[in-house]
Design a protein that fits this description.
The protein is mainly α and about 550 residues long. About 75% of the residues lie in helices and about 0% in strands. It is built from 26 helices and 2 strands. It has a two-stranded antiparallel ribbon. It is globular and about 75 Å long.
């Protein structure tokens, strides 16, 4: 045994039992001093960059909020609606953050150790608590600090919406952010602690959780559309720790939270209980869970440094489906040419999450297009861009089978078609599903009496955005010369080249289609010439996707 771990046999007191752990920690503290100093420098540089970005983008908004608050001017209708809906929307946002961080804890929990620690140190007879609890404290502290900054900024921005004291709004927002950070850290520890059960049943559990959250969001949207009645405010504010933490901010903004002191007390008590639970469960995290997260985090970090986003996503662990759930099987096609669409449809039916997100993004695109004529004229262009970005994201979810094929060329090696033909066949199912989703959205809008000509523009842009998604699916690994760039008097061109290389497909589609939607929103007519422009963009995009697939699969 190593002399660091050797202890006299005659020592039996509890304090002496911790002596090997204390000696190991002292030795590691001395041996890792250079590494800690390097991490401090890296952290300082990161904070400096964040401060610069925040000063450039955040300070103007904060100054505008401060001027609005001091001037006492009447807030806009949109800001008034935001403040009115705060008792419903803010707890929903906190709940969304909580569930999202719980899902992220599957591959990167709050307790994250390095490879030497998990490979060597945790196998030795040392106590895990003194080794793992500092990691938890650092992670929870970082998350709470980020939440504090975001919450304080949110409270200060909301302060400009009316005659509310800025210290109360800022402190209440900061408290909600800190509460969100503590809650996410505690839930992440529980995900790590029961890692085996999460991997085995997590797909079903998270599917139920996301479904329940979708119902909550639907109820919240209904309540906001009816002016946030009192029953909805009370329901969401007292629904759990996420609602209790939001009550001080709602009260600071003059909202319906008369018992916010009790809500704050319940929030403090729940956070204390969650913190104690996290401290108790941290030493019990299995070594396998720590090893898996250390391996995945290292691989993802390496992929991100190399800007290989696809490899980073492929390194994330997937949750197992329930064994009792039968695999979806479509009847095989009778014509050989329908083999690729049949395989794409089967893959999407087995990955229901892709279909769900495609529906969400399609609904977002339809909603933004319908509301675009009602927004201010100077903001219509931005709304049109966001609507088309949502449509591209929906198309990207539906072209996932093509991306899987580009990652593993063996899937298409035995098919009797060229890479260009395969790309065209892969466009069939996404185009049909996207047109069907947009058609359903247009029918719902027509039945509600809010149909707009812009909805036809979305349908006409389907070929262009499906082609853009296929270009992204077949882009492959970023070339080395793109990362190197060219030195100019303005600096290196590598960041701009990398950005354009990764987003060249959607950028090209947006450049062609956004002016069409903006013009239709302004004048309310969708002429045949505009349809021809969109279809020409789709044809060019499909040719480009075929060329990209040929270079990747056959080049």
């Amino acid at each position: 045994m190593s002399p660091l771990l050797r202890t006299p046999r005659s020592v039996t007191s509890p304090l002496a039992a911790d002596e090997p752990t204390a000696r190991v920690r002292a030795h590691l503290h001395e041996a890792r001093s250079a590494t800690r100093e390097e991490k401090r420098r890296s952290l300082a540089f990161t904070l400096y960059g964040i401060a610069l970005v925040g000063a450039f983008w955040g300070i103007p908004g904060l100054l505008a909020a401060a001027r609005a608050g001091h001037s006492g001017q009447r807030p806009s209708a949109a800001m008034t609606d935001v403040v009115t809906s705060l008792p419903v929307t803010f707890p929903v946002v906190l709940l969304l953050v909580l569930l999202g961080m719980a899902r992220a804890a599957v591959w990167r929990g709050p307790v994250l150790v390095d490879q030497p620690t998990v490979s060597w140190l945790l196998r030795t007879p040392v106590r895990r608590g003194p080794l793992l609890l500092p990691r938890l404290a650092a992670s929870a502290g970082t998350t709470a600090a980020v939440g504090l900054a975001l919450g304080a900024a949110t409270g200060f921005l909301l302060y400009g919406s009316g005659p509310h004291p800025w210290p109360a709004a800022t402190l209440a927002g900061a408290w909600a952010g800190v509460a969100a950070g503590v809650m996410t850290s505690a839930v992440g520890v529980c995900v790590e602690r029961y890692d085996r059960h999460v991997l085995r049943h997590g797909a079903r559990l998270f599917a139920l959780a996301w479904t329940a959250l979708a119902v909550v969001v639907a109820v919240a949207a209904l309540a906001v559309s009816r002016g946030t009645p009192a029953w909805s405010a009370g329901l969401f504010l007292w629904s759990g720790p996420w609602g209790w933490s939001a009550q001080p901010l709602v009260a600071a903004m003059g909202g319906p939270a008369p018992w916010w002191g009790l809500g704050a007390a319940l929030s403090v008590a729940s956070l204390a209980a969650l913190a104690l639970l996290a401290v108790r469960e941290t030493p019990l995290i299995p070594v396998g869970a720590l090893r898996r997260r250390a391996t995945v985090a290292s691989a993802v970090a390496t992929s991100l440094v190399m800007l290989d986003l696809r490899q980073a996503r492929a390194g994330l662990p997937s949750l197992q489906e329930s064994r009792s759930r039968p695999a979806v099987r479509l009847p095989p096609p009778r014509h050989p040419r329908l083999l690729v669409p049949w395989r794409d449809a089967t893959a999407l039916l087995r990955a229901t999450g892709r279909l769900g997100w495609a529906a969400v993004w399609t609904t977002t695109a339809v909603a933004l297009t319908v509301t675009a004529p009602q927004v201010r004229e100077d903001a219509r262009e931005l709304v049109c861009v966001v609507a088309f970005v949502a449509q591209y994201l929906a198309a990207a979810q539906l072209t996932e089978p093509a991306r899987l094929e580009s990652d593993d060329v063996r899937r298409s090696a035995g098919l009797p078609w060229t890479a260009r033909q395969l790309a065209l066949w892969h466009a069939l199912v996404p185009a049909v599903l996207l047109c069907a989703g947009l058609g359903i959205g247009a029918a719902v809008c027509a039945s509600a009496g809010v149909a707009r000509p812009g909805l036809a523009v979305l349908v006409g842009a389907v070929p262009a955005f499906v082609a853009a998604a296929l270009v992204s699916s077949y882009r492959g690994v970023i070339p080395a010369h793109i990362l190197v760039g060219t030195q100019t008097p303005m600096g290196s061109t590598a960041p701009v080249q990398t950005f354009v290389w990764y987003l060249r497909g959607p950028l090209a589609a947006l450049i062609v289609t956004v002016p069409v939607l903006v013009s239709v929103v302004h004048d309310g007519t969708y002429s045949p010439l505009r349809l021809v422009v969109q279809l020409a963009a789709g044809a060019g995009g499909l040719w480009w996707a075929g060329r990209t697939a040929h270079r990747l699969l056959r080049g």
